[in-house]
Amino acid sequence: MEKGEDVKAVTKSFEKLEFHSDSNSNCKSLKTYLFSSFVTGLLKKTKPPSLVSLCLGLVGKHLEDIIEDLGEIAVNFPADIKMAIAAIARRRRLLNDDVIISLADSSWETLDISVSDVSDLGLGKVMEACKSLRAVDISRCDKITTAGYSELVQNCHSLETLRCGGSPRSDYTARRCSGIFKPKLNDVDGESWEELDTTEIANGAESLVWIVWQNIDKDSLEILCTECPCITVNPKPSPFGLREAAVPREALPNITLDDPVVKDIDPSTWAVCGFTRKAVSPSLSLAEMSVAEKFRLAFVERDTRLAPKRAKNARQHQRRAEKEWMMMNTRAKALALASQVSKTLHSRN
Of residues 263 and 295, which shows the higher confidence score? Predict the structure, then answer.
């Protein structure tokens, strides 16, 4: 039955629908509302997933099996496909230096490596390949140190949005890097800022406009607000814009930077068995944690990191058991050989 016939059937059903109530006007209003809701639901179009999305979902489910050869496999992939694979790897806790270096593309304008094992080495290699990055998310990347922040600011001259912090260690690193964002003068003999040329201000975050740091402490916030007047920390969306410029999506709070590239892919692609990382309270710093809590978090992080490896080992054991059963079972072996012979005969014909 097509949509037109469905709408006609629903219309006839609603014509026969009767409400027993003293208020006739209320009945009519309710009847009209229900009818419009049903028709809207029937006419609503659901777009099926594309073939590319289905293929990416299949690749993502078995991503750990091709990671070793990912550099050779992805060399001819388009930039958006590489970004989608990187997003799936990040969600599956498989994103590390080797993976992101294999997938980095010079045309990327956004980079989301949050909650990953990417270190200063991987970030530096990506900066060398991607010169046009406008937004970068390195929040909860505990392996990125002050050296990585410095290299990011110095080599990424188009960087406008930086998302950082999010975990006790990342917050600590970001606090130590607050001075990297300050503009520094090559010529300190000038009498006023107005007389300085832009080339005389160097070694700072020249193009940085937005910093998203959810757990920023008061001291760091005060330093950035007073000493980096061109940078806005944790901007709030406003219909009238901020500083005559609307806040971009990349700088909005509670968003995931790489969501648009995987919006058409089935979320079950990155579902991994194991513990789910428990979010740490924003007000709880590393120094305030008890020893037991630190051990618990370390165990959870280690278990989450090893979950993909356990899943891969389980699949390998299953395949090995099936292969051994095929070799030991006479009937199964005969069926396999018959299938091979049948394929050979068909190919000859």
Answer: 263
Mean pLDDT of 176-194: 64
Let me know: does 270 contact 85? Beta carbons within 8 Å: no
Q: How big is the CA angle at 23 (ends 20 and 25), to the nearest 5 degrees?
A: 110
- Residue 306 neighbours by CB distance under 10 Å: 14
Cα radius of gyration rounded to whole Å, the chain: 28
With contact defined as beta carbons under 8 Å apart, do 214 and 234 qualify?
A: yes
State the SS3 of 276-331. Answer: CCCCCCCCCCCCCCCHHHHHHHHHHHHHHHHHHHHHHHHHHHHHHHHHHHHHHCHH
Verdict on whether the full-model pTM lies above 0.70: no
Phi, psi of 343, deg, nearest 5: -65, -40
CB atoms within 10 A of CB 146: 15
pLDDT over 90 (residue 47): no
CA 190/CA 192 separation, integer angstroms: 6
Is residue 208 within 8 A of residue 231, CB to CB? The reply is: yes
